[in-house]
């Protein structure tokens, strides 16, 4: 007899496949932290309001505390531990370090994953709530106002926002130069 409250799922976390038997109500955050032992995503509020649990799900940022693990079945999950490739930091990680984009560090994993998502969304031409021209052929400029709006779902209790904004803008410039 099968248990209708549990499901077998498969998650590819930072390149490694994990097969899990989870309660259907289990959050992706809890599955990542407790079942796959990825401590990067933090449980800040557990209500999707602080962004400390932000991860990339198939390349798009999500708050993992509000995402059911069963809904992520078959997906690629990138946590902060999976952002660097062979110890080569991404431009956004380097910028956070160089420009003091963190203080206590609790929110930093979510901030970094969100910043990677923000940069990808901007490259793809996605507008934000403050983008003035949302026509398909318009390419908005990534400025401090855009970064603040796009990163607004990630709270920092220490108030490192000015440095976070500078780091995201710096990373965007460095990525643009590489292309």
From TrEMBL:
Keywords annotated in UniProt: 2Fe-2S, Iron, Iron-sulfur, Metal-binding, Oxidoreductase
InterPro entries: 2Fe-2S-bd, 2Fe-2S-bd_dom_sf, 2Fe-2S_ferredoxin-like_sf, 2Fe-2S_ferredoxin-type, 2Fe2S_fd_BS, Aldehyde_Oxdr_Iron-Sulfur, Beta-grasp_dom_sf
GO molecular function: 2 iron, 2 sulfur cluster binding; metal ion binding; oxidoreductase activity, acting on the aldehyde or oxo group of donors
Highest taxon above the source species: Bacteria
CDD domains referenced in this protein's UniProt entry, alphabetically: fer2 (cd00207)
Pathways per UniProt: Alkaloid degradation; nicotine degradation
Record-linked Gene3D superfamilies: 3.10.20.30, [2Fe-2S]-binding domain
2Fe-2S ferredoxin-type domain segment(s): 7-83
Listed name of the protein: Xanthine dehydrogenase YagT iron-sulfur-binding subunit
Annotated organism of origin: Lentzea waywayandensis
Phylogenetic placement of the source organism: Bacteria, Bacillati, Actinomycetota, Actinomycetes, Pseudonocardiales
């Amino acid at each position: 007899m099968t248990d209708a409250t549990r499901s077998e799922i498969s998650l590819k976390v930072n390149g490694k496949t994990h097969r899990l038997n989870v309660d259907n109500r289990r959050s992706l955050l809890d599955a990542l932290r407790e079942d796959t032992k990825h401590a990067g995503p933090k449980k800040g509020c557990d209500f999707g309001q602080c962004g400390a649990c932000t991860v990339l799900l198939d390349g798009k940022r999500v708050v993992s505390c509000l995402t059911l693990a069963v809904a992520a079945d078959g997906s690629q999950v990138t946590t902060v531990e999976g952002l660097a490739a062979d110890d080569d930091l991404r431009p956004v990680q380097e910028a956070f370090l160089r420009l003091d984009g963190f203080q206590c560090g609790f929110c930093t994993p979510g901030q970094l994953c969100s910043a990677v998502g923000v940069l990808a969304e901007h490259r793809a031409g996605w507008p934000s709530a403050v983008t003035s021209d949302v026509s398909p052929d318009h390419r908005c400029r990534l400025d401090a106002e855009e970064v603040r709006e796009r990163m607004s779902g990630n709270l920092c209790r220490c108030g490192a926002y000015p440095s976070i904004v500078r780091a995201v803008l710096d990373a965007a410039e460095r990525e643009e130069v590489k292309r």
